[in-house]
Design brief:
The structure is a single chain. This protein is an alpha/beta fold. It has two domains: 207 residues, Glycosidases (TIM Barrel, Alpha-Beta Barrel), CATH 3.20.20.80; 68 residues, SH3 Domains (SH3 type barrels), CATH 2.30.30. It has seven helices and 15 strands. The strands form three sheets. An eight-stranded mixed beta barrel has the order 1-2-3-4-5-6-8-9. The protein has a four-stranded antiparallel β-sheet with strand order 10-13-14-15. Helix 3 packs parallel to helix 4. About 4% of the residues have low confidence.
Length: 291
Amino acid sequence: MKYGIDVCSYQGVIDWKRVKKAGCSFAVLKCIRKNLALDTAFTRNVAGCAANGIPVSVYTYVYENTPEGAVKRAKAAVKACKAQGLKGCTIWWDVEERSVFKTGAAARAKATASILAARKVIEAAGFGFGVYCDADFYTGMLNAQDIGGKWWIAAYHGNPVTTIGQAPRYRKPTIANELCGWQYCSRGRVPGISGAVDLDMAYDDHFASAGKMATVDGISTRKRTVTNATGANLRELPSGEAAVAATVQEGAELAVVEDWTATNTAGGSTTRYVCVNYAGKWLWCAERLLE
């Protein structure tokens, strides 16, 4: 059993170094939004987890309940993961939108067809597939045994404020399918994250092992040169207030991951940062300092 978190853009800029030190063994990252565009924190969070050796899987909140809509979302999730260099991770199908999924036999059958269509696309692309929902949704709105596969269940039992690593004072959910993970709190507290965050327990490697989770490797980079006369600070986070991990001189060449960018607005000005691999670490550099 391992402790982890699931996060999205709502958590803001996360200090993944502090999160790892606090005992986080894995992270589940939101990859795409309702309109199928990238979650605005996805790139930054992938880079932060990679820099700190935190295994990841991803999730997408589902608004579609037809096979056609599910296939479209599944393809977008796969594309998002591949663009970030994630290989073989589990993509969790987050089914909880009660305006879309309904009770009754016909509604259950419709949901089953939709979910299985998504599963086919995701597994064919080389990724794992699992379903996330709460305990009531599992028993009341889905034909879970027809869907099969891996499950991640939310059940809070009062939902007290809890610190990561603090074991819940109640038992995990019992389901007929394979329980891979339990989201046991939505009011979690983790150093490095401002405000509340979901806390999870993992029971198998679909959450917490590099065997099933993605490790970031094979990332393509290109060389860019520092053109600023006073050099460039490489920071642990994409922010001018973040700790400086290294300083490089004018003329230095840096290996830049073109797809990993983040913007930060402070004092009325916006700075775009790019992620660089320097001395075996993933760090951030203001793009205006590079050619």
